Amino acid sequence: HMGIEANLKELANASFLSDPSIVEFKQENVPLTSIAMGLFPITVIVKHLDVINLRFALPRSVDETEVHYAYFCHQDDSEEMMTHRLRQSSNLLGPSGFISLEDGSVFNRLHVGSNTFGDIMYQKGVDSLHGEPPYSLQQNDEAANVVKWKHYTELMGFAR
Description:
Elements: E1 2-7, E2 33-39, E3 43-48, E4 51-61, E5 64-71, H1 79-92, H2 98-114, H3 143-156
Antiparallel strand pairs: 1-2, 2-3, 3-4, 4-5
């Protein structure tokens, strides 16, 4: 399992977006943070801006994975806040969201890389030729995946 928390800053200028409200933080009395928890092997729970999101995957074959998304709100959220959370969730962390598109690209790169020979120095945050901890992790580093997939391959009895 893995947990990451990062402090966020208000976006100074979102005018490049057709609808800047997509990245607006509306909650009051709550710190502006991003929290992601990865539950081994393929479930992620995220609280990012006003998003409360659960993403889990179902392996379908060696080369295919089905990904599901669930969005949540608070029971006492107003209709306006529920709508905002849903729009923000689907546009940031939905299947074609700003963040998820980048995640999909990373997942594909990791899949391709797992079937090649060589070292793992290309992964952001890996500072050892053999990919051994300790790492000096920064937000959005991929190094945590090295430990996760090393454990997974050992658990499944796969040779690298």
